[in-house]
Design brief:
312 residues; Histone, subunit A; alpha/beta; globular
Length: 312
Amino acid sequence: MRFRSKLVGVVGPTASGKSALAMALARAFDGEIVSCDSTAVYRGLDIGTDKPAEADRAAVPHHLIDVAAPTEVYSAARFAQDAGRVIHDIAHRGRLPIVAGGTGFYYRALVRGLFPGPARDEPLRARLDRVATRRGVQALHRWLSRVDPASALRIQPRDRKRLVRALEVYLVTGRPLTDHFEATQSAVPGFAVQTLGVAVPRPALRARVSARVDQQLARGVVQEVEQLVAAGVPETAHAFSGLVYRQIMDMRRGLRGLTQTRDLIVQENMRYARRQLTWFRKEPDVVWFEGGGESAAIQEQARGLVERFLND
């Protein structure tokens, strides 16, 4: 079967229309979509992650959405393992696996692999935690920017846990985390991969992001957070560290009001989009489409590219 060892990826920054393009390709080529989103894996975090509509999920099978409790910590390594298993199953059934999403680290873990890394060094971690407590977690991010700029691009400046791990790897091994990735193995060995990137000009992207945030607030994302907390999800849950949810948790603690929170979510989304674009631009062999993935012209061009890839 022509799909048996082929995989299509649809990547790019937030609000660029990746889901729409992935749906169009799934319909055209009898495909199934594997979500590559580090927050959509959590059950109950629906509005702030813009999970696919029920109608889309009924029309095209979607995988790796709602696979973890919000109290769990879902990792890139677990994603690579889960996605690899799902992709093999999809291909075995004669359908086309389409990996779609914007979590670049997860995508790289899947198609290029992760390294196991050194064991935890508790004294070193304690020292790094003391630096973060004394000088602010942003000090760790500035440090990482000097020794491993690629990792600093993908890790949020306030993501203390991942910053500590990246610096730990560097200090223990003498090599940045990024260098280790080069010697790893894909979770889908033997699969030919065609990656499509979707990019939107910055002014248009800001308008898209602003509209999305307004829709999330109108749909009740703040109430969604309150319901999760009321149901027993701790405020410190890793699921709340993602965009939208992190800013809402800050608002609950009284750090800012709703209007300021809305503006900050837009601002942080734009910063994240810039990091995503920088990350994916460095991925090998990505074919880029400039414009929203909802565009009929882009969808037609993408279908032609995928058709050639499948028939090659």
